[in-house]
Queue: 3 jobs
Job 1
Amino acid sequence: MSGLYLSKGLFPADFLRPTVQFILDVQQASGEIPWFEGGYSDPWDHVEAAMGLSIAGEFAAAENAYRWLAENQLEDGSWWAGYRGAEVDNGARRESNFVAYIATGVWHHYLISKEQAFLEVMWPTVERALDFVLALQSEYGEIQWAVDAEGETKNDALVTGCSSIYKSLECAANIAVAMKHCPKRYLEARQHLGDALRNKPERFDRTWESKARYSMDWFYPVLTGVLPRKEARARIASRWDEFVEQGLGCRCVSDQPWVTVAESCELVMALLAAGDHARAVEVYSWLHQWRTKDGSYWTGYQMVEDLLWPDERPTWTAGAILLAADALTEHTPAARLFTSVNLPSDEAEVSALDIEARRRKLD
């Protein structure tokens, strides 16, 4: 199916119900959400799928997913790059943007559920995760992308990864205020990181070939609020023809004939963030030709070979489909999480929380 055009107030719940059920069917009793049945999981994509569950009102399943992360968090606040059940599937590294993303997921779930008890349970996990991430921030503002198995920093940074962290720091600041904790360290780290992303391109891709050929490097600074709207629109326009295939979707990599559903969904939200609602609706309408009978979606389509590739239907792609639908229809209170920036606005409250934090340190 293609041609699903969405507008505000018209969330296609019945159409997307099989997509939600697909995530639920893959989710393990432990709360873990693998990529697909029998596959492995990673912390970032696990959260992406969990956010889809929150949008659908599957609060118990979503909270079980976050509980799984809390139970598997390492002492330093991080997670390994991959898991398969109770076993570590990829113990080669721990990635900063993977670790930070729990703040985005937890805030997203709270915005929808309004469950203060959930925040209270998850706050220590979020706080430890951000401690790990902020320890990797350099004096120039960028955040190193990972540490290796021995805990040594991999001394380079990714535009996409740091952009994702930028949004997670916004969410962490909001969680802190909701928990009556001072958000200042998250706000300051976010400001420092944003400056690096906007003004210090030399701090990224220092030790490897530039990742600019990847579409996420193109639109993630828009998706996560790094750029103001005027600059966001200019950035989208600058490489639109390079990445977007009419009627198909967004390429993952500019020089490969491969469009992917998840990147296309994220582009939809980036377009909304840039104020380009018409093209956001259009791009989303193309994606349902990659849907299967059970409501899942193929990862992507290889245009030259005319085949679906790889032979995978990930839970995180299903999560992205739900996130984009929510953003287009404004179905839940979290619909604008990726299309706008919402920082703690009460300066007096932030100052009071800062004073209280300083007082506790002195005590």
Job 2
Amino acid sequence: MNKFAYSALIAFVSSLLTLIAVVWVAPTVAESDARVREITLDELATHNSADSCWKEIEGLVYDVTDFIDRHPTPASVMTQWCGRPSTEGWVDKGNGRPHSQGAEALLDDFLVGYLEGADVDLAALNQSINEAAVDASERTATGTEGQGVRYRDGSYYAEAEPGSRGTFGIIEISVQGNRIVGVYFDEFARDEDGTVNYRKSADMNYAERWRRVSGGVTQLSTYPAYERMLIEQGVPEGVDAISGATGAHEAFVGLAAQALSDAR
């Protein structure tokens, strides 16, 4: 076989293998559409526990099982909606307040389908899933850069002025590799000698009083939730307020912004 014929054969085989690979790997239109499928009320109702929690919100169905432990409220706040239409709880999470835009953005990561009879655009839903996957990948790859923020490595501290009851908030934020890797927030009080003699996160009486008026939210769940959201979102603006804990939210966000101003 001459050199030209041999080269032509190699090119043909290479092209054939490429075509086979494309056909083998690329999903069909039907397979793509199947990524977001129709879900009946009966099927939705089978996912009604913390072990498998699906919720319908405005016609779309989300599997939020993996988010229950990350949600900044007691688990019961979410699990009460598992397996059933949940738009009511979504648009009013307490005192007529809807979930934030940040929370809405997170929903795309958990989309599994649409409720039977809902008027939806399948192509748009599949595109939403693809974009959510890309966004998640970019968040993982870029850290706070995705928020247009650059932080210097280090530990950053801020402390508020004492309030009318003598307590004051403090925050310490650790940054490494342009990522927030640790957050500590609490409220303290000092005696006349300046020695810390009170820590709100350890005050069980305060927690019980807060629980009675907030529907189950206390500093025991709120402080860690705000810390976790700051680590995940990378910026104070990404921390969503928890119903029943808006005062703590304002204090936390203000101190976080103050501390991180030294990190830029």
Job 3
Amino acid sequence: MMNMFSENNTGSKVNPLIALLGVGLFFIALFYLAKTAFFILSWVAPVLFILTLIINYNVVLDYGKTLIKWTKQSPVIGIVAIVLSFVAFPFVSAFLFGKAMLLRKVNAIKKDIKQKEEGVFTEYEDLTEEEMDDPLDLKDIEIITETKGSNQQDSNEYDDLFK
């Protein structure tokens, strides 16, 4: 008679029925997870598609060009890809939105690197001589003169340098 428990080298016993049941529950959970994701994405997909067109419309054009290229190379694969694109539109729109956001971020990083290499140009305003006040013009300041009195006989060598 065959034993339902098989023994492996380590001595632990594994029930194949429980393992099969676990795998089955895993795939059922995966199915409901995909179903929920499809339901949520089906409501958000039109918004994501419009945002993709606003952010970078070239992503959608490139995807369409890829589908046309596949149809020209192999009509069966191209037609299947087009049909799957319509059936799985929520996932396709989420993919295209993610690609547009990624390209946007990459372009921003490239722009930052280019700015660091070339330097940042600062805008300035050219002031003409009429508009600019002369900082050395001392007409408004009273002239203060110090007179050295005869009672200040204390002097040092440093003061003598300025006489």
